[in-house]
Amino acid sequence: MKKYSTLLCAAIVLTMVLSSCTSQKGSATTDVSGTKASNLPNTLSAEQTAEGWQLLFDGETLKGWKRFNHDTIGPLWSVQDGAILCNGEGLGEGSGSMGGSLITSRQFGNFDLILDYKLSPGGNSGVLYHVVENPKYKYDYETGPEFQLLDDGGWKGELREEQKAGSSYDMFAASSSKKVKPAGEWNTARIVYYDGHVEHWLNGEKVVEFDENSDEFKSRHSNSKWKDYADWNKSKTGAIALQDHGAPVYFRNIRIKEL
C-alpha cells in the first residue's frame, strides 16, 4: 500500500508539471489584432506569424534600432527585464547630447503597429511614424506624426485634449471614453496607417480615426503647431520612433504587419 501511494503521488506531481509546461508553451490569449497571441513576451504565435506579423524587438537586444541622427545608441536607451527602457529622468526633451528618440533601421509605409508601454509617474513619451532621418532635423517630430503617450493624471501643467494619451498629438483628441491604465502599469497602443487613413487604438479600443485627405485634417493642421514644420507628415514612408521626452518609459511586445 505504501509503495502504491508513493507511485500515485509521483504520478500526480508529474501530471501537474507536464500540464504546467503545456499551458506555458501551447496556450495563447487573443491579441488586440484579433489573432491568437503567444503568452510569452516579445514572441509571436504561429497564427500571428502566418498573418504576417513581425517582431521589432527581440526582448534582449536593440538590434534593428538606432538613435535618431546618431551612430551610437547612447547611454539612455537599454534593455532591462525584457523591455526597452529610455531612462531620461530629470532631463529635458531629447535629453541633450546623450538622448534622442530610438528609431527603427527599417522604413515602413502602410502598417499595423502594436506595442505595450509603461510610463513613470508624470511621464511623457510618444510613438511616431514615417520619421525621416536627416541632420537638418533636430527632432523626429519635425517629420513624423505622433501617438501621444502620457500619464494624464500625473502630468503637471495645462493640457489640451489633443495633447493627452492616445491622441494624434496636437491634431485629434482621443475619445473621452478611453480606458488608460495609470503610471507603472502596462498599456497597449496600436496605430493603423493605410493610404492616409489613420486609427489609434488604446487597450483594445479605437480612440482616434481620421483621414489625412479630409478637409477636417487640413483645417486642424493649419491651426496646429505642425504648420510651422514644413516637412511634417510629408513623407509616407519612414521609421517608427520611440520618443525620448525626458522621463523613464518602457516598451515591449513591439510588432508590426505591413499592409
Helix share bin: 10-25%
The description of the largest β-sheet is: 8 strands, antiparallel
Superfamily (CATH H level) name: Exo-inulinase, domain 1
Specify the overall morphology: globular
Instruction: Tell how many strands the DSSP assignment holds.
Output: 15
The computed structural class is alpha+beta
Average the pLDDT over all residues and give the rounded result: 88
- Pattern of helices and strands: HEEHEEEEEEEEEEEHEE
Q: What is the number of independent domains?
A: 1
> What is the count of DSSP helices, taking H or I runs of 4+ residues?
3
Query: Over all CA atoms, what is the radius of gyration?
Result: 21 Å
Structure description:
The chain is α+β, with helices and mostly antiparallel strands and 259 residues long. The chain has a single domain, classed as Exo-inulinase, domain 1 (Jelly Rolls, Sandwich). The protein has three helices and 15 strands. The strands form three sheets. Strands 3, 5, 6, 8, 11, 12, 13 and 15 form an eight-stranded antiparallel sheet that branches. A five-stranded antiparallel sheet has the order 4-7-14-9-10, with no helix packed on it. The chain starts with a helix and ends with a strand.
What is shown here, in short?
With 259 residues, this protein is α+β, with helices and mostly antiparallel strands.
Task: Describe the SSE topology.
Elements: H1 2-26, E1 28-30, E2 36-38, H2 46-50, E3 54-55, E4 65-67, E5 77-80, E6 83-86, E7 102-104, E8 111-119, E9 124-131, E10 146-150, E11 187-194, E12 197-202, E13 205-211, H3 215-222, E14 239-242, E15 249-258
Antiparallel strand pairs: 1-2, 3-15, 4-7, 5-6, 6-15, 7-14, 8-11, 8-15, 9-10, 9-14, 11-12, 12-13
